[in-house]
Every structure is written in C-alpha cells, then in structure tokens.
Design a protein that fits this description.
Elements lengths: L3 H24 L6 H38 L8 H7 L3 H6 L12 H16 L7 E3 L1 H4 L36 H4 L2 E3 L6 E8 L18 E7 L2 E10 H4 L4 H25 L17 E2 L11 H12 L8 E5 L1 H8 L17 E2 L2 E5 L7 E3 L2 E11 L3 E5 L3 E6 L8 E14 L5 E7 L3
Parallel strand pairs: 2-12, 6-15, 7-9
Antiparallel strand pairs: 1-13, 3-4, 5-14, 7-11, 8-9, 10-11, 11-15, 12-14, 13-14
Helix pairs in contact: 1-2
C-alpha cells in the first residue's frame, strides 16, 4: 500500500505529463489530437482519483501517528515518509526564515512542511508570518534526538556520542496523560452542545399517556486564542548542527507552549485573551476546607470524587490532579491514628483512581487570612477539550538584538480550552499544605 508521499509524487508526475502535452500543443498553435484528448481524459481521471487517495492516506497516517503517540514511543518507523518526517530539523527551518543572516532558502522536508502549515493556517482563517510547522509534526512524540542520518531498515533512531543538554526544569505535560481530548485541525468558531438535563422515563399502565421529557441543551464555544513566546539565541548557536542543539531549541519552545496551555486549562481566567480554566468554570463541584483554608484528608478526597459521581457522570477518564505540596502533604497524612497507613502510598493511584502531579496547579491562592493555599481537582478528564487551530508559526527577528549578536525566535499558535460538562469536575481550592 502506497503512503501519502508516494501518492503525491505519482500525482505530480501525471500533472507534469498532462501539462506537457498542453504546452506542446500551444507551442505548435494547434488543437489536441484525438489520441492526445483520450490520454488527457485518462490522466485527469487518474489525477482526481489520486487526490482522493492522498487525502485518505494523510488522514490515516495522522490518526496512526496520534494513536502511536498515546500508546508507544515513535522512535521506530517503518516507512520512508516516516523517516523523512523524523528528519525534520527545527534549526534548518529557523535558518531558512526570511531575514536570517546568511541563511539558505527552505528546501526538502522543511519546505514541504512549511507549505502544509500554510494550507492549514489558511483553512483556519489565519496566516503564517514566518516558517510554519504543521499539525502533523506536532503529533510526533519523539523521545530521542534527531540524528543527521536515519537508519534504512526501519529499526528506529540510533544515538551515538551524544552529550546531554541540561534544559529548564518545566512541568511535565499532564492533560493528555489524564485523558483530556485534544481537537486539532480546527477552523472557525466551534460550538460544542452539551445536554444540561436529559430525558426522564416514567412507569405507566398498559394504556396511558407518557410524560413529556424536557431535555435542555447548552452550547459551549471555542475560539482561536493566540498563544506565543520567543526565545533569544546567538547566531553562533543557531548555525550549529549538533543534535543536542536541535533538541534544546525544540524543547525550550515546545515546553513553553505546553506550560502556558496547561496553566490556562487549569486556572485560566477567561479574560485578557485567556481561555477559561477548570478552577474558574461556573458549575463545577466544590469541597471546602475552612474559613481560612484547611488540611486535605481522606475525607476531602472522598468528597471530591463523590461530588462528581453524584451527578451521574459516566467516568471514562477519572482522576485527581494535585500540585507537589499537596502530594507531599498526603504522603505524610495518616489515614487514622493507629493503622500506620498513609493517605497516599502509591505512585499510581489515589483512593483507587489515577492521579497526576504538576506545578501548574496553583499553590498561591488566598482565602480569609489563609495564604499560599493549594488546589486539588477530581474530574472526568475526557470532558476537558483542548482545541488547536493549525500548527505553529516561527518568525525570526535578526534586527532587534543585532548589536548583541543575538536573534529572536518568535513562536505563535492558536488554542482554546473548554470544560464540556462542568459537573464532571470538582475542586478544593483552600488546601493548607504548610
């Protein structure tokens, strides 16, 4: 079965053939012959068929990449196209942007991916100002450093003589781990209908009119919101070709986006261009510690889960989300005075449910005289939607810091967050951890 790249190449060859016959006829100032018309019709039919095949193959490969990203490392590739995509270099893309001093124009896989990103941005109603990174590359979860040459046997990447680079210690990505739904390739404004109250059945005699159910629906809305950052690097750094430099640049920019996105999803205000996060969404369940805050105990954890379960929410991806101080407090909190057991004594589950820890959960909340209070969330995480419009847009600014020999790399993207059903989440926002 041919992959998307092979189909695109085959279609491009047919277009060249068809165009060549037309060009020859025009040059000779004549009409097409009968045989040429028959050949043209056949080529056009094949071109249309291949266009549909390319679209189908791209979708299949995108779904396969997303599935692999959820279930297994993407270090092993068994197709030529997979190896081509994996050879994509962010450094080459940066050096190929307009304005990079002495840079060469984009070519190869970097140019192809830029063209794909331009099409995605156009479909989303946006435009690419610099070099685009398409959604298909953002689906890659590469756990290794890209090497200058790729193996030809599909055996995966090989790391040789790599010197590790110490990067900033940023919070790990936890939304996908917990089960949040990521919606990609979005265009325009997205309406998400939610049933506020469902149908109610009632028992009746053999002959008798049934009661009418008053089903009500509410509709959430997702709009593209611009999220961006920039990194400052020296020109000397950016002309390096070492795999460690490539990895450091990727991680710094990508992690910055992930961190900002998860902060907004958890505690976004819904104002000043921010998405509305879980903790500030009206209608989520609430567990209170005290007037000035309170300790989190086994009782509060049970209450958090019960606040969601009592709403008849189908728990497809349930779990707790904590910050580090709250996790530490639970590890040091006894279940009772005499058993010697602690509330949290597992790296996998809390009260029988999965849990995750991240410093993007706030620990600086204030209530009454209580300060530095933490939050904890229990929820059905598949009810958290994270939408993305297009890929990423890289712009290089070589002028602002030119006298310092430095270059700004600006990255922009478009995201939004929606709590699909507020009743699927409950939070405690006044936890004393000190």
């Amino acid at each position: 079965m041919k992959n998307a790249k092979q189909l695109r190449e085959e279609r491009s060859a047919l277009i060249d053939q068809a165009q060549g016959v037309l060009t020859a006829a025009r040059s000779a100032n004549r009409e097409l012959t009968g045989d040429e018309k028959t050949a043209q019709d056949a080529w056009l039919l094949q071109i249309d068929t291949l266009e549909a095949d390319v679209t189908r193959a791209e979708r299949s490969e995108k779904m396969a990449a997303e599935q692999a990203g959820r279930s297994a490392p993407l270090n092993s590739h068994n197709t030529t196209e997979a190896r081509d995509i994996n050879s994509y270099s962010l450094l080459k893309a940066v050096r190929g942007t307009h304005g990079f001093p002495g840079g060469a124009p984009l070519e190869g896989i970097e140019k192809e991916m830029h063209q794909q990103a331009v099409l995605e941005a156009r479909a989303a109603g946006e435009s690419v100002q610099g070099v685009g990174i398409p959604q298909m590359l953002l689906s890659q979860r590469d756990n290794s450093i890209t090497m200058p040459s790729q193996p030809q046997d599909g055996g995966g990447l090989i790391e040789k003589n790599l010197r590790p680079v110490i990067d900033l210690l940023r919070p790990k990505s936890i939304l996908r781990e917990l089960g949040a739904q990521f919606l990609t390739g979005l265009t325009g404004v997205i309406g998400v209908p939610t049933m506020a109250s469902g149908a109610v059945s009632s028992w009746k005699p053999e002959v008798g009119e049934l009661d009418k159910s008053n089903q009500t629906f509410s509709e959430g809305e997702m709009k593209a919101k611009r999220l961006g950052t920039y990194a400052i690097r020296s020109k000397q750094f950016l002309i390096q070709t070492a795999p460690s430099v490539e990895a450091m640049l990727r991680q710094d920019l990508e992690n910055s986006i992930i961190e900002a996105l998860e902060i907004a999803a958890i505690n976004g205000l819904g104002t000043a261009n921010q998405p509305l996060g879980i903790l500030n969404t009206a209608g989520i369940g609430s567990v209170v510690g005290g007037v000035n805050g309170g300790a989190i105990t086994r009782t509060q954890l049970i209450a958090l889960a019960a606040a969601v379960e009592a709403q008849n929410v189908r728990l497809t991806n349930p779990g707790y989300l904590l910050n580090v101080p709250t996790k530490a407090k639970l590890m040091d909190t006894r279940t009772d005075a005499g058993s010697g057991l602690f509330v949290l004594d597992s790296n996998d589950t809390l009260m029988g449910y999965p849990y995750a820890t991240t410093q993007t959960v706030p620990g600086n909340l204030v209530k009454g005289t209580g300060t530095a209070l933490s939050a904890a969330i229990f929820g059905n995480w598949s009810d958290l939607l994270v939408g993305q419009w297009g890929g990423l847009d890289l712009t290089v600014d070589p002028y602002t810091l030119a006298t310092n020999g430095q270059i700004r790399i600006i990255i922009q993207s478009f995201f939004d967050v929606l709590v699909q059903r507020p009743k699927a989440f409950a939070a405690m926002k006044d936890i004393i951890t000190a």
